[in-house]
Amino acid sequence: NAGVTQTPKFRVLKTGQSMTLLCAQDMNHEYMYWYRQDPGMGLRLIHYSVGEGTTAKGEVPDGYNVSRLKKQNFLLGLESAAPSQTSVYFCASRSITDRDIDTQYFGPGTRLTVL
Amino acid sequence: RKEVEQDPGPFNVPEGATVAFNCTYSNSASQSFFWYRQDCRKEPKLLMSVYSSGNEDGRFTAQLNRASQYISLLIRDSKLSDSATYLCVVPRRNQGGKLIFGQGTELSVKP
After folding, report:
1. Chain A residue closest to B43 (CA)?
2. A58, A103, B4, B67: which has the fewest C-beta neighbours closer than 10 Å?
3. Contact, A35 vs A92, CB < 8 A?
4. Continuous H helices in B11-80
């Protein structure tokens, strides 16, 4: 049982390049989330999904797009990377049937640098 | 005012000390709260959940004061391995389980 996995773990981009971050979970969770974490700040929600085929904006969605074509995968896309998107990106998932209702399980993170 | 606020620290304490962190939240309708622990450059992990007045797990005690809208985390008999950043987290109900994170309080336990 791998839990939540993220690929890649590290990436360096040049301004204007595009890339996709992949999050996968094997816990059959309905809800999935993408966060970014910047130095001295807590995690901020970028986009989230409450089920396959559905997505919604979080606090800081600009410059990102997402897709949830399969229940177990949640993709985060950067169409034209900017230095302001240099950050650590965490994916998380949650089941609506969890005993601790709002417990989220996090992936190990992707460290992205945009030059 | 931020939805969730924490003292960023750092808190530098000797082994064996007792240390307490406070967290204030702005939404009086919030029903549950969480403390997550985050080690350097790693993912946050759930430490404790708080649904009523408080929760205790070994050396860790979380207390909730609804009237003043703050949550505290008390760590007794600090260990070197307690060194980490502690995140106060408040879920937004009926919004897809969204979590609002405080900026975190850094704890460093010294020998």
Report:
1. A108
2. B67
3. yes
4. none
Quote the CA–CA distance of B16 and B109 in Å, as a whole number: 9
pLDDT tens per residue across span A40-76: 778 999 999 989 999 999 999 999 999 999 999 999 9
Distance CA B51, CA A91 (A): 25
Rounded distance, CA A103 to CA A96, Å? 9
pLDDT digits (tens, 9 = 90+) for B24-63: 999 888 888 999 999 987 999 999 988 877 889 999 999 9
- The pair of structure tokens assigned to A55 is 């997505």
Contact yes or no for B91/B98 (Cβ under 8 A): yes
Contact A42 B91 (CB under 8 A): no
Which of B42, B43, B51 is the mutation pick for testing A, counting most A CBs within 10 A?
Answer: B43
CA distance, residue B14 to nearest chain A CA (Å):
23
**Rounded Cα distance, B108 and B37, in Å:** 13
Cβ atoms of A114 and A21 closer than 8 Å: no
> Cα–Cα distance between B66 and B30 in angstroms, integer?
9
Q: Which residues of B touch A58 (CB under 8 A)?
A: 98
Give me the phi and psi of B26, to 5 degrees please. -100, -25
Distance from CA of A80 to the nearest CA of B (A): 25
Q: If residue A21 lies in a helix (H) or strand (E), which one and from where to where? A: strand A19-25
Q: Which two tokens stand for residue B33?
A: 């709260």
